[in-house]
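ARCHIVE RECORD
Type: protein–small molecule complex
Small molecule: GBH
Source of inputs: curated submission
Record status: active
Notes field left blank by submitter.
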Amino acid sequence: CISGAATSSLRFPDDFLFGTASAAYQVEGAFLEGGKGLNNWDVFSHEPGKILDGSNGDVAVDQYHRYLEDVDLMKDLEVNSYRFSISWARILPEGRFGGISATGINHYNNLIDALLLKGIQPFVTLSHYDFPLELEKRYGSWLSSEIQEDFGYYADICFKAFGDRVKYWATFNEPNIVAMHGYRTGIYPPSRCSRPFGNCTNGDSETEPFIVAHNMILAHAHVVHIYRTEYQQEQGGTIGIILNTMWFEPISNCAQDIAAVERARDFLVNWFLDPIIYGKYPEKMRKLIGSKLPTFSRNDLRRLHKATDFIGINHYSSLYVKDCLLTSCQSGMGSSRSEGFACQTGIRDGVPIGEPTAMEWYYVYPQGMERLLTYLKERYDNTPIFVAENGYPDENSPHRSIESYLQDVKRVEYMSSYLESLARAIRNGSDVRGYFVWSLVDNFEWIFGFTKRFGLFYVDFTTLKRTPKLSAFWYRDFIVKHKAVISEKPKHDYKQYS
Ligand code: GBH
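STRUCTURE (tokenized, with ligand):
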């Protein structure tokens, strides 16, 4: 009864990674165990009113204790890789202002070894939204250039401890979202913003996101430099950055709307990738916001030439874009939002761009995957790409039966259509090296708490028992059909991109 495309004819490269993705704060729990320091999300989620259902990640889905069980689930899925993130405060409870936690290092050693024992490659994100609270207290975290050193110190410890076995590293998950929601809309920690962009007055929504992004770009380049000069040759791995993406379509054929699409792309993804790959911010951003955009020193520029081995994209959805350079449009969480002086909406003349889902900005628009991959191939000289997240949310409602979550036909259709679109991009020359489903198990969905379910495995949030959904069986069959043969080291020579 599984619908979807006749996928057996799709082709993926031999060493293609098929995996699932997760993030420390969303799955680990054990927030006070093993000497872990508090991080920004630990504190934020405990503030009243921040998380939709009043929940937090204190326990999450307890992967800290249940990692062996979860690795077994992955084995059943036949995935050959697992994308997870390291909790910075588990390794360095107080950043570089305190000691290294041996218990923290030990935990990830155990997880990595358990994965490798089952033939699953670890794909590790160094910071998936979280960092030790101490860095916020000391110097305001991402607002200060001091954090670049801190991040380098932390990354170096990880390369040293885990780099003999970890061949895939990502510095950040979605730094563009951290900048936007931490410092513009204020809905993520550290909840800084100014009106009319958000509901607070403690920050400056017009300048801080750009300072934060600047520090994250330089922190990324710093860590890539460390890896390339001190570890890459010996360890033979690859390092990149993962960005949140949307595909944008103009709402009409008029020139203003088409120009607005370009701005929307600049202000979401090119904002980070242009500096990291070409050493400069997009021309149009500079024109529109001028001196609010920081500049790179000559020293920075040396670091910023091809400062990534791969581009990671989290891709779920597409939106229409309408010009609003001259007209104003509603910002925030309403039915349309404005970023990059471009109004973004999922609906045109009452008709959604694709089937809506349980998440407000997530529409099913599989052709967006191929278009985005083609766009990135052309703009960034065919830099290798990993689709680091793609997945489908269900609304967690007390009125639904477990059975209705397990029969997740919509998720199967979603994954099937997006994978088909991805395969078409590969056929047309996109250098895509892997695909990760968000997520292995239902988990803590940030400000939405436990109200959304993205897992291939259903989790009973009381007993934390995992049960495979239809999509888990479907993904296993898909992988078996398109089986990748994983070699010890990546087959491709990543050094050609350094
Ligand atoms: C990714 O974020 C994350 O990397 C991952 O941790 C998360 O679980 C996954 O996607 C599923 O959502 O835009 O006003 O509705 C995706 C980017 C940006 C999506 C913030 C939700 C919430 C605020 N997220 N957005 S709003």
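CURATOR ANNOTATION: Residues 23, 26, 173-174, 177, 181, 244, 314, 333, 360-361, 389, 438, 445, 454 surround GBH (CB under 6 Å).
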